[in-house]
Specification:
Order of helices and strands: HHHHHH
Oligomer: single chain
Number of domains: 1
Strand content: under 5%
Helix content: over 70%
Radius of gyration: 18 Å
Low-confidence stretches: none
Number of helices: 6
Structural class: mainly alpha
Number of strands: 0
Distance between the termini: 29 Å
Largest sheet: none
């Protein structure tokens, strides 16, 4: 069972990274109805995969791996969880913006978004990806038992 949850955790993590990369690519071109719909889908996949990463990750910590006391004595684990929370907070702004486009999209119209706002959304998605890379670094450090205290 532990291997299955590890697999599920990793697949969800890869889906999360892929969804963010797709969002970034879609935000580089001029917004269209089709592109805006794809952004909504990519963001939904991001949210779903982040939820799976979080739930399965904590199930692994508390039930399937070395136990909570082991992980909560790991600086890289604590950094990883903190970075995940920061990515989640940063993702709120783009998600709220994408969801606000639904009314226009239902009418078959391109959402009206100022270029400055699109630049801000791009910037947020860039930061999400940067922080996810740092999260992956901490996962590798954690896997090698670097930075344990106590």
């Amino acid at each position: 069972m532990s291997s299955f949850f590890a697999f599920l955790h990793h697949v969800a993590a890869f889906a999360l990274v892929a969804a963010l990369a797709i969002e970034l690519i879609l935000l580089k071109e001029e917004l269209s109805v089709r592109r805006a719909r794809k952004l909504l889908i990519a963001d939904a996949i991001f949210g779903l995969s982040a939820s799976v990463v979080l739930v399965v990750g904590f199930l692994r910590v508390f039930y399937f791996e070395k136990g909570a006391s082991y992980y909560f004595h790991s600086a890289p684990f604590l950094a990883k969880v903190s970075l995940f929370a920061i990515v989640g907070l940063i993702s709120i702004y783009p998600t709220v913006e994408f969801l606000s486009w639904r009314k226009a999209l239902k009418q078959g119209q391109v959402p009206v978004v100022a270029e400055r706002k699109l630049q801000t959304i791009r910037s947020f998605v860039h930061w999400e990806l940067v922080l996810v890379v740092l999260l992956i670094l901490n996962a590798a450090l954690m896997a090698r038992a670097v930075g344990f205290f106590g």
